[in-house]
Amino acid sequence: MRRFIVGLLAVTTLALAAACDPKDPTAGGQPDFVPAPAGQSTPASASSAPEPSVAPSPSVVPSPTKKPTSSPSPAGCPQGEYQKVVEQALATLGGYGTVTVDGKQSAADCAAIKKFQKRFDIRPVNGKAGPLTRGVSQRLLKSKPSSCNAGNALTACIDLTNQTTWIMSGGKVVYGPTVTRTGMAGYTTPTGSYTIHDRQTKNWSTDWDVWLPLWQRIVEGKGFHTTTTYIHNTSIGSHGCVNLLPGDSQKYWSTLKTGTAVKIFGRRPGT
């Protein structure tokens, strides 16, 4: 009788152990691990793979990856609304690297536009062909050396219409064109032929209480000098002076001399 009871307990225990395994083949599931046939090693993924710290919830279905609405911008540069116009301008101006005129941003286009923006202090330098980048490029393209009537003498040319300036010698452009900002409404920069005089590395303006770096007087109290504000802020134009970017101002200072001819022509928009 005792032997019969012990045997009955053993059978019951085995039955309970099998029922606790959710992957028991007899319960209609699949086992987590099937022993390898004799003579074969056990796959590492089955015997030694660590368990995840948090098991994924079977009720959470990963959302599908959304397709981008447009192609990603190469080299981190956004494509501007004037992409092709700026590409064409830079290809014509030259000196900014390889540009493909197709209206599509590329890594090379991005680098060229950034170089152009840095050269003319267009902010931010982000490679985007926006309105300001387009505007500056078109102003440079429209600046014609023939409008200056410089002859063969060393001459500083100031185009009020396009708000640009350049230096000529021997009938050829030797520097520029580059951007400038001249007199605003009520303080227009006068047109005509003049010469440089009264050069000072730093001139104090008694009228406006401000230092004017690399000052080169052209006529009356008006002359070339390094801009003291953001040159592309046209709402606060000069009081008749010819504002220059720092690098351009240095070049004008080292190239022009007392007595150098200056030709001012055109008319600034809005004046």
TrEMBL record:
Alphabetical UniProt keywords: Cell shape, Cell wall biogenesis/degradation, Peptidoglycan synthesis, Signal, Transferase
GO biological process assignments: cell wall organization; peptidoglycan-protein cross-linking; regulation of cell shape
Pathway(s) it belongs to: Cell wall biogenesis; peptidoglycan biosynthesis
GO CC term, one of those recorded: extracellular region
GO molecular function annotations of the record: peptidoglycan L,D-transpeptidase activity; transferase activity
Residue ranges annotated for the L,D-TPase catalytic domain, each copy included: 154-265
Record-annotated active site: 232 (proton donor/acceptor), 241 (nucleophile)
Domain of life of the organism encoding this protein: Bacteria
Start-end of Low complexity biased regions: 35-52, 62-74
A Pfam cross-reference name: YkuD
Region of interest (Disordered), ranges: 25-79
InterPro entries, per the entry: LD-transpeptidase, LD_TPept_cat_dom, Peptidoglycan-bd-like, PGBD-like_sf, PGBDSf, Transpep_catalytic_dom
Region forming the signal peptide: 1-17
PANTHER family given in the database record: L,D-TRANSPEPTIDASE (PTHR30582), L,D-TRANSPEPTIDASE YCIB-RELATED (PTHR30582:SF2)
Descriptive protein name: L,D-TPase catalytic domain-containing protein
Organism expressing this protein natively: Catellatospora methionotrophica
